Amino acid sequence: MKKGYLYILLATFLFSTMEIAIKISGSTFNPVELNFLRFLIGGIILLPLALKRWRNEERRFTLKTFGFFALTGFFCIVVSMTFFQLAIGYTKASTVAILFSCNPVFVLILAAVFLREKLTRLVVLSLFVSLGGILIIMNPFSLSDPIGLTLALLAAVFFAVYSVISRYGTKKWRYGGIETTCFSFLIGAFELGFLMLLSHIPSIANFLSTSGFAVFSRIPFLSGVTLESMPMLLYLGVGVTGIGFASYFLAMEETSLTLASLVFFIKPALAPILALFILHEPITFETSAGILVILLGSLLTFISGREVPKIISKKEENPHFRS
């Protein structure tokens, strides 16, 4: 369990710097290109360890296995992270960080529906409190950048879908966090790369350009890679994407889905502070109030995660125990 908390802390710090690093790199890379590169690098970095664990468990790559990772890669890299990259271009990095952090709300709901994971009253209360904090930050009565906010929320929803599908694989086929992260990244990056190739077909490229989707037309693969941009690209690919996501899923293995989701409840408080010092993005009153409410929701989630094992142990000791 102590190791799990270390994974949570590491993932929290790396994820809290993700939007900031992407914002800094925004003028250098096409957003889809950066998405492709950082997940390809992250997958390659994790590949030796993932293959070692795969061989130790004497697993084989079957059509079903490939299909599973193709599905998780599609929802994570092609859909969720593309929305995420675009959102950072439309609004502040701190705003995207806060809104994306609401994905555990959708994770816990989807996990309860499809994986039949228990939602206690305390968990439900923590979800409503956290959602209240997010609404305070969004301030729907005075939306200044609705496109960026919408893209960030879509990224959160589809990342929740990815998380729940990954969770299903770890429960049904005992896939580890490293393997799930690595193979999802690599296959998802190749899926995105295939779509990038299609964007160079003249008829498709012209259609996208004339339809207002020029960012998806003739997407480059390596145009932003220079000696100056390499350190930030490696930080995003190796640090944030490779180590960060691996730590998140290892935290799931060591603790629980609920406790691992604390990464995204702590991040709304840490990311705006880092953005203030690094990008000089101001923290408004609404943001400060929303952060405090979200931290309260995080505390409730943490308490509920510690109570579940106690309830289970009581049931095991006494079959007539009722919660």
TrEMBL record:
Q: Which organism is it from?
A: Listeria floridensis FSL S10-1187
Transmembrane ranges, per UniProt, are 37-54, 66-88, 94-115, 122-141, 147-165, 177-201, 232-250, 257-279, 285-305
Subcellular location per UniProt equals: Endomembrane system
Q: Does the keyword Membrane apply?
A: yes
Q: What is this protein called?
A: Permease
Q: Does the keyword Membrane apply?
A: yes
Give the top-rank taxon of the lineage listed in the UniProt record for this protein: Bacteria
For this protein, the record's PANTHER family field holds: ACYL-MALONYL CONDENSING ENZYME-RELATED, MOBA-LIKE NTP TRANSFERASE DOMAIN-CONTAINING PROTEIN
| Predominant place of localization | membrane
Please give the InterPro entries that the UniProt record associates with this protein.
EamA_dom (IPR000620), EmrE-like (IPR037185)
Which keywords describe this protein according to UniProt?
Membrane, Transmembrane, Transmembrane helix
The annotated topology with respect to the bilayer is: Multi-pass membrane protein
Which family would the database say this protein is a member of? Belongs to the EamA transporter family.
Provide the EamA domain boundaries: 3-138, 147-302
Q: Which Pfam families match?
A: EamA (PF00892)
